[in-house]
Amino acid sequence: MKKTSFNLELIIDLIILLLITVFLLGYFSPQYLLSKTTTTGGDTASHYNTLVYLKNILFPQGKIMGWMQGNYAGFPLFYHYFPLSFLLMAILSFIIPMQIAFKLGTVLGIFLLPVCVYACCRFLKYKFPIPIMAAIFSLVFLFNEGNSMWGGNILSTLAGEFSYSLGLSLFFLLFGSLYYGIREQKLYLFNAVGIAVLGMCHAVTLFFLGVASLFFLFSPRPYQNLKYLLGVFGLGFLLISFWFIPFVWNLQWVTSFVFPWSIKSFWAVLPPLLLPFFVLSLLAMIFNFQDKRSHYFLYTIALSLLIFFVGPQVGILDIRFMPFFQCLIVVFGATMIVKQLPTIKATKLLPFIVMIIVFLLIKSYSSNVSAWVKWNYEGFEQKSSWANFKELNDYFAQGPSGRVLYEHSPANNVFGSLRAFESLPYFAKRNTLEGLYMMASITSPFVFNIQSETSEKPCHPYPNYFYSSFSLEKAKPHLKLFNVSQFIARTKMVKQALAADPDFRLEKSAGDYQVYRFLKNSDQYVEPLTTKLVFSTTNDWRKDAYRWFANYEDGDSFLVFADGRDPRTTALPHYRTPRVSSIISNESINIRTGDTRFPLLIKVSYHPNWKVKGAKKIYLVSPSFMLIFPQEKEILLTFERGMYNYVGIAFSVLGLLLLLLQLPGFKKLREQLSPAWLERLITGCDDSWEGKVKKIGITKLLISLTIILLILFALIFYHSRNYNSFYLMKRARQAYGSHNYVKAVKLFGRVVKLQENLGAANEAGLFYALSLNAQGRYTEALKAFDQFIAEYPSSYWTPQAYFELAWTYQALGQQDKAIKAYQDVVRNFPQTVWKDYALKRLKKLR
């Protein structure tokens, strides 16, 4: 009878999982998922070329990591992004068209989440119908429309976070399997392989699983649990070392993007659709607080909030941990009925009732998912603007070899994504500046500075860098530096500025877009340098390079970030500039120079994996390019694996051998090896180690760890309050907004002095002067404004600084100087609102 009941429960579970899939397909129509079109929508559109590059360029070389030239002046692909989703898509594309494989890969995490949540609760040994109810509840999280950028839910996935989505699903699977494996001392290989797979999905989900697993150290069997965790995580990391070790080593060559995410409303965290399930979660905590599984959930929920609040202080993007909080509380709500199960008679009917209620709730609250799915998966080719977009791409495909710059504009979304032109390397086989994987590139801050100089509505993505206001004059040296030959303009302001500038020539009009040729560009990726080179041994080359770039003019000296020197570092104006030709390929650069006396600037991003023949070494040169001193007239640069790549491969081979030794077919070989040796190799532990820990006592260790953590949090709080620019600026803005200008001067001045964050220091410099003005300290304010303008002659805040400088002169009765400062605003910043303000003041003064 019990077996029959179990079979019926399993059948009900499978039926409901099938109905959940059907429900999801009601939104993710096969009409769009199975159409052979190129996916659009947010970041997702820019991911497609990555798949194409992986399959067509890297796979034939036997690699999954390499160099991509198309965006950000080149960047290392998959050295700072997660390859698993793309690997699955690429493999699937050998069977079905690549466009369809990509679409299926992007929704895989969505369809897997209910299944993985169900499996999680089964591993946690919750009785029927709790696992299937938890799976149903997970739909509520998926259809939550409170955000579209945090990750995990459908809108975030459609916006491009599909790797995170898959990682979140696998997190729940391993969240349950680790609990079961540790409790039963089973699933060693399953969990080890799962950890490896999770790591290649998304680093955040792996990190969170790792810290969540510390829960098992607070148990009656801490030593045994620790050995199990070291074993599965150790083997898991060995298996992915071929990718993970290069990933970690490459962190020194990425651009940090960490800041405290501002959540402006309680309803963003717990929107109306999630709120009832939060209440269920609270009831589950009250009713089942003695249940160890509840402790596991509550510990992990609390951990997600803790990391959210302290994450930015330790270099972690906090918002990626909020989806864990949301999904965990929704799923945990299903456990409310644990103690009531024996009294519930219609347990077989209950999941169907719950499913219908959840389906109706989703139908009532979800308003955007269907439209977003259609927008993404009907593809570029089905948009009404496709003919216009195709015309532009076909035109660029026949163009010069230089890079294509485009104006950043929300209007670009008409093609299917605001980032549509990031796919020029795919559609037109042309290199452009901007791209999706901005953290993977050391060049991205400079690219976004150019964007601010050439767009009416730039995005300013990095808060730790300052930006410019619109200025073609300031942009021209930068465009030449980046070998920009063509410029796509969208807005009226930018078109008018280009039309009035003799250095740009209109080449083509297509719909609302105009293409201008930049006449001052050489269309060369490699050029001989005739200016002086300055060798720099700075401790922070990024800040120095960015300041250099912000003020760069034609003829300026370049900064070479190296200890050594070369005799060819001085200007060579009395020699005839040699003819230099180059061929830029995917992972190689062929150069021919007519004179080896001239150093060569290679307008491609620097990375240590670039190797050179025909020169002694490759130097990092401002802004973030490569410089060589040729020893031969024929030079070849190739992007190759580094030593850390081979170390990673060796560790992965070791991991595979250890994995094989655990399989039943290798029992004899395993018995021939020393069990103690094998255990030490996998876990780093042996009996003597355990004895030492026991001698100390796990309680003492945990108390010591708690004290250390409390001290660490206190230090983090002190540091953030007094030395972290983000939090200092928050306090300074609050003081300024409440007219506490004395405090504002102190805080803004501290940010300026720290120079820890270039973007914050730039803004703080202006508001430091404004705060002095507000106190009537005009003489000090004049000095502060002058100092700001000297340091930031063309930043976003500079037009306002000139305007406020003029106002300060007025306040001091120095009318002539005020008029001159207002005229500087009109002359130097004609495309800003400050020009209009200055004209009004000038009219009154005259």
Automatic annotation (TrEMBL):
Signal peptide annotation: none
Keyword Disulfide bond: no
PROSITE patterns for this protein: TPR
Alphabetic keyword roster: Membrane, TPR repeat, Transmembrane, Transmembrane helix
Domain Membrane protein 6-pyruvoyl-tetrahydropterin synthase-related: 80-523
Alphabetized InterPro entries for the sequence: Membrane_prot_PTPS-rel_domain, TPR-like_helical_dom_sf, TPR_rpt
Keyword check for Transferase: no
TPR repeat start-end pairs: 799-832
Entry superkingdom: Bacteria
Annotated transmembrane regions: 7-28, 78-97, 104-124, 130-150, 162-182, 188-216, 228-249, 269-289, 296-315, 321-337, 349-366, 643-661, 701-720
Protein name, entry field: Membrane protein 6-pyruvoyl-tetrahydropterin synthase-related domain-containing protein
Organism phylogeny: Bacteria, Bacillati, Saganbacteria
